[in-house]
Amino acid sequence: MYNMNGQYPNYQYNNYHNPPPQGSAGFGIASLVLGIISLTFACCIPIIPAILGFIGLILGSVGIKKGGAGRGMAIAGLVLSIISTIIGVGIILLLFMPALMEALPYEPFYYNNMDGSFACYGLI
User: Fold this and answer.
1) Cross-strand bridge partners of residue 112
2) Is residue 92's pLDDT more than 80?
């Protein structure tokens, strides 16, 4: 295999190694998007942040475990999802608290009609 000049061809070898493939940022991006959407709807529709925040928590934790390029986005999505889940569940509890209080058969204070005094039981 000589070239026209009677010499071996000049092959150039690439001694650089290709870097190992990094994990994709799909879970991190999905967690960040769900965290932003759920935080946006946290004050308007409280059931959406509770559901999307929970899904964002799962995707963010998977993205952190996988590492790679989307680790920072997964951490940001996880934080946003935690905040929006807490806000959403808190608003749901505040909305349903009067209904829960009405459903309880127990009243710690009662008024005694006989002598006109108030009594307390169960708290002391």
Assistant:
1) 117
2) yes
